[in-house]
Amino acid sequence: MNGKTWWINARKSGVYSAMLKKMIGQLEVMLSYHSKINVIRFDLKQNAYTDKNTQITTFNRRLFKWLKRHYKLKRIGFIWCREQETAKHQHYHYVLIINGHKVEKASLIASKVKAIWNDISGSYWLPKNCYYNLKRNEHSEIQSAILRISYLAKARGKSYRPPQTKDYGTSRIKLKQN
Questions:
Q1: CB neighbour class for 110 (10 Å; exposed up to 12, middle 13-18, buried from 19)
Q2: What global pTM score does this model have?
Q3: Which among 37, 40, 41, 71 has most CB atoms closer than 10 A?
Q4: Residue 59: pLDDT above 90?
Q5: Secondary structure class of 122 (helix, strand, coil)
Q6: Integer angstrom CA distances of residue 4 from 12, 142, 161
Q7: What are 135-164's pLDDT values in tens digits?
């Protein structure tokens, strides 16, 4: 992608390439603005099935408002995907991408994510090694993050939703023009 080769996690079910390209694109876009970014990965589980992604929209609005106020962030990158396999209700995999010069550790953000999501709709899970501090020119570190987050683009678990409801969403930040 964009002249670079990235290893991805395409085990068993394959991946949705359009989703994967948007995900990698958002990392590249954030690195075009910031020489260092913090990438935080977590899961959001719903208490009940919904046809729409209203809860994730509410979650984004509340989290971004807090992040901008608390850390004085100008831009926030994100990636989420909706999945439903054997459970009766959907869950979301989520990646948050923020300026690594303003935020170095994920612990306070993780606490806020948990509080916001618990208030909206369910439980929250933070995997081991949930965050990466990436620098613009550290290809191997960026590769590690891409390998990890490419899991979100897996084909398995998608499309269990009404046709008008999205399987994923990303921020719409554009590449910085020099």
A1: middle
A2: 0.89
A3: 37
A4: yes
A5: strand
A6: 24, 11, 34
A7: 999 999 999 999 888 888 876 555 555 566
Residue 85: count of CB within 10 angstroms of its CB: 10
Structure tokens that stand for 103 in this block: 């935020």
- Read off the tokens for 31: 């690195």
Asked if 75 and 21 touch (Cβ cutoff 8 Å), the reply is no
Cα 37 from Cα 104, distance rounded (Å): 9
**Residue 64: per-residue pLDDT:** 97
Give the per-residue pLDDT at 32.
94
Q: Which two tokens stand for residue 164?
A: 């008008």
| Residue tagged 């550790």 (tokens) | 105
Count Cα atoms within 13 angstroms, Cβ side, for 13. 12
- Give the integer Cα–Cα distance in Å for 165 and 168: 9
